[in-house]
Design goal:
Elements lengths: L4 H18 L4 E4 L6 H12 L4 E4 L3 H15 L3 E5 L3 H4 L2 H10 L3 E7 L25 E4 L10 H17 L3 E7 L8 H14 L21 H6 L7 E4 L9 H15 L3 E3 L16 H7 L8 E5 L6 H9 L3 E5 L14 E3 L3 H8 L15 H21 L7 H11 L6 E3 L3 H9 L9 E2 L10 H11 L3 E6 H6 L14 E7 L5 H6 L5 H9 L6 H7 L3 E5 L2 H14 L3 E6 L2 H16 L3
Length: about 600
C-alpha cells in the first residue's frame, strides 16, 4: 500500500467518490481550487473509467444549483466538490432549496487540517458550520487530514449518507481536511491507481438493510374516523416533492383513489399528475376566484405543499370540513394553515391502507360525483371566455404565454417554470397544459436564485427542455452559462422581458407612485440581451407575436443547443388586458 500523504490523499479521495457511485451517484460538479486537488484528480480518474460524469463550474453558487437540477430530473444523488473558504459559503442558496424541495445533493468541501484552524492561516474559516442549518447530516473526515482515515472510516461516511438520504432526501455536507502535499507525481499517481484497482475497484460492497423497509406504518386514528369516502370531497394536489422515480406509483395510487371516490381533482402545474386522470378540473383557480360557494362538500384530501394561490389558501382557511394532508415521506409539518391532519408516508401507502379493507368489487370505478359535474360546467364557461379573449389579438402578454406556450411547445417535451410571475400565471391560466409532460419548478424556498443553472442541470437529464423565465431571474444567474458545455445543452430559454420584477406591479402599484415602485421593487435594468447572448455564445432571437414564437420554437429545437428567445412585455398593456379578462370571467353578463 502507498503510505505518503500525497498518495493517501488521492487514494482516499478515489475510494470515497467510488463508494458514492455504488449508492447511485452518476454526476459530479467540480469547482476550481487547490485544497480540493486530490478530489478533483480522483474525480478525473473515475471519469476516464466511465464510472462518473464530471462537469466543471467556476461559480460555486451555480454549481450547487446545477447539481440540484440534475438530482431533481434524475432522482439520483449528485455531488458538488469545492475548495475551502468563501467557496463553501456560495453553496448555501442551493443547499437551502435542496432542503426545502427534498432533493439529494452531497456537498463535499475541502479544508485545512485542524492544526491550521484559528491561527490566521490563509483561506481558513469555520466552513464546517456554513451549511449546518439546512443539511440533513454534517460529517468530517479525520481533522488531521483524510490521509489519517482508514477503509472503514470512508465506508462509514458513505453508509451514513446513504441511510440519511433514504430516510429523508436533502442536502448533505462533508468537510474534508487535506494536509499538504496536495498534488502528486505521475509515478505516485500510477502507484495509487494500481492499489485502487487491486483493492477497491469492482469490489462488492454490502450496505446495511434499511430499517425503514420493515417499518410498520400506522394510520392516525383520526384519519380513519374522519374520512367518509362515500360522501363528496375534493382532491387537491400541490407541487410534487417526491422522487421522479416514484412518480409512476404516485399517479397509480392517485388514479385508484379517484376511481374509488369519483371526486374532482385540482392540480398544480408542477404536481406531476398525469393528464389522463379522471375528474380533473382545469380552471379551478379561476373557479375559486369567481365563486367558492359552488363547492359543496365537507372533506378535502390534500397532497403535498400548498400551491401559490391566494384564492386556494383563503378557501382552505375558511373550509369547515376535514382536511387530510398526505406528504411524500416528509416528517416536517407542511400545512401553514394548521387546518389538516398530516400523513407522512406517501400517497401509495395511504391508498393501500385506506382501501385495504374493501373488496375488489367495491374498488371498481365509481361514477363522477355531482360536484364534478357542477365544477366542469363552471370550467367550461371559463374556458369559453378565455378562448374568446385570448384570441382577440396577437399581442404577447404574460398570462397569454401561460395559456399558449404549452400548446405550441411539443406536448411530450419538459418545461421548467421559474419562480415569481411564471409559476403563478401558469397556475391561473395554463388550463393544466403542463400535465402532458414533465414540468419542473423549484417551490421549496421559492426564490429566483439559480434559475438558469437549475434548468441546465435538468437539461442534462431530460431534454429538450423549455425554461420560462423573467428577465431578473435569468440575469441573476447568468453565470450558469459558464458551466461546462452549458451552451451545447438542449435548452430553450423563453425570456419574458418586462424590465423588472413585474409581480410587484400587482402587489404594490396602488399605494406607490411609479418612481417609488421602480426603485424599491421593480429594479429595471437596461440590458442589451442580444449582445449578452453573444458574449456567452448563445443563439438568440427576438419575437414579437405568437405566430413568430411558434416559428422560434421550431428553430430552437432544430438547433439542439442553448438558445434565448426574448419576448418584450408592455407592462401597462399587460395589466389592462389581465384586468379585462378577469372582469369578464368574474362578472359575466
Amino acid at each position: 500500500m502507498t503510505s505518503s500523504i500525497d498518495c493517501q490523499n488521492f487514494l482516499r479521495s478515489l475510494q470515497l467518490l467510488y463508494l458514492f457511485t455504488k449508492i447511485g451517484v452518476k454526476n459530479l460538479v467540480l469547482c476550481p481550487g487547490s485544497r480540493s486537488a486530490p478530489l478533483a484528480i480522483a474525480a478525473g480518474e473515475l471519469n476516464k473509467l466511465g464510472i462518473l460524469n464530471v462537469f466543471n463550474s467556476i461559480d460555486e453558487r451555480s454549481a450547487g444549483f446545477h447539481a440540484l437540477g440534475i438530482s431533481s430530473a434524475s432522482g439520483d444523488i449528485s455531488i458538488v466538490v469545492t475548495t475551502s473558504g468563501t467557496a463553501v459559503g456560495n453553496l448555501l442558496p442551493a443547499a437551502i432549496e435542496a432542503d426545502k424541495s427534498f432533493k439529494s445533493v452531497v456537498f463535499i468541501t475541502a479544508d485545512r487540517p485542524l492544526r491550521l484552524k484559528n491561527c490566521g492561516s490563509n483561506q481558513t474559516v469555520n466552513q464546517e458550520e456554513f451549511l449546518n442549518s439546512v443539511s440533513r447530516l454534517n460529517l468530517s473526515a479525520n481533522l488531521a487530514g483524510i490521509h489519517e482515515n482508514n477503509d472503514d472510516d470512508i465506508l462509514y461516511i458513505v453508509e451514513m449518507i446513504r441511510r440519511h438520504i433514504f430516510d429523508s432526501p436533502g442536502p448533505i455536507h462533508i468537510n474534508i481536511p487535506f494536509e499538504k502535499p496536495l498534488d502528486l507525481s505521475l509515478k505516485n499517481k500510477q502507484k495509487s491507481l494500481e492499489v485502487f484497482e487491486k483493492f477497491y475497484l469492482n469490489k462488492n460492497y454490502k450496505f446495511f438493510i434499511d430499517s425503514k423497509q420493515n417499518k410498520n406504518i400506522k394510520f392516525h386514528k383520526k384519519i380513519l374516523k374522519s374520512l367518509n369516502l362515500s360522501n363528496p370531497g375534493i382532491i387537491i394536489v400541490g407541487p410534487y416533492q417526491g422522487s421522479t422515480k416514484d412518480l409512476e406509483s404516485f399517479n397509480d395510487a392517485l388514479e385508484k383513489l379517484q376511481a374509488f371516490t369519483g371526486w374532482p381533482v385540482f392540480v398544480d402545474p408542477v404536481s406531476g399528475v398525469s393528464a389522463k386522470l379522471r375528474g380533473l378540473v382545469n380552471n379551478w383557480e379561476l373557479i375559486l376566484k369567481k365563486n367558492k360557494n359552488v363547492i359543496q362538500c365537507d372533506q378535502i384530501l390534500r397532497l403535498g405543499p400548498l400551491s401559490s394561490s391566494k384564492d386556494l389558501e383563503d378557501f382552505l382557511l375558511n373550509f369547515e370540513g376535514i382536511q387530510i394532508l398526505v406528504k411524500e415521506n416528509n416528517k416536517r409539518k407542511l400545512d401553514p394553515l394548521k387546518k389538516s391532519l398530516e400523513y407522512e408516508f406517501g400517497i401509495s401507502n395511504f391508498v393501500k391502507q385506506l382501501l385495504g379493507s374493501f373488496s375488489d368489487e367495491q374498488k371498481k370505478q365509481k361514477p363522477l360525483i355531482k360536484l364534478v359535474q357542477v365544477l366542469l360546467r363552471e370550467d367550461k364557461k371559463i374556458k369559453e371566455i378565455l378562448n374568446d379573449q385570448l384570441l382577440l389579438n396577437e399581442v404577447i402578454t404574460e398570462f397569454k404565454i401561460a395559456n399558449f406556450v404549452s400548446k405550441i411547445w411539443p406536448e411530450n417535451y419538459p418545461i421548467m417554470l421559474s419562480a415569481s410571475s411564471p409559476i403563478r400565471d401558469w397556475l391561473t391560466f395554463s388550463e393544466n397544459g403542463t400535465l402532458t409532460r414533465d414540468c419542473f419548478s423549484f417551490r421549496g424556498a421559492s426564490g429566483i436564485d439559480g434559475t438558469l443553472s437549475l434548468a441546465l442541470g435538468i437539461a442534462r437529464i431530460t431534454k429538450p427542455l423549455l425554461l420560462v423565465t423573467g428577465d431578473l431571474a435569468l440575469i441573476h444567474d447568468i453565470n450558469g452559462f459558464l458551466i461546462e458545455n452549458a451552451i451545447n445543452l438542449n435548452l430553450t430559454i423563453l425570456l419574458i422581458n418586462n424590465n423588472g420584477g413585474n409581480i410587484f406591479n400587482n402587489l404594490y402599484k396602488d399605494n406607490l407612485d411609479k418612481e417609488e415602485l421602480k426603485k424599491l421593487f421593480l429594479m429595471p435594468k437596461s440590458i442589451n440581451w442580444e449582445n449578452l447572448a453573444k458574449a456567452y455564445q448563445v443563439a438568440y432571437k427576438d419575437v414579437s407575436n405568437f405566430n413568430k414564437l411558434r416559428e422560434a420554437f421550431e428553430w430552437s429545437l432544430s438547433m439542439q443547443k442553448s438558445v434565448i428567445i426574448k419576448v418584450d412585455i408592455n407592462v401597462e398593456n399587460e395589466i389592462k388586458e389581465r384586468n379585462l379578462i378577469l372582469k369578464k370571467i368574474l362578472n359575466p353578463l
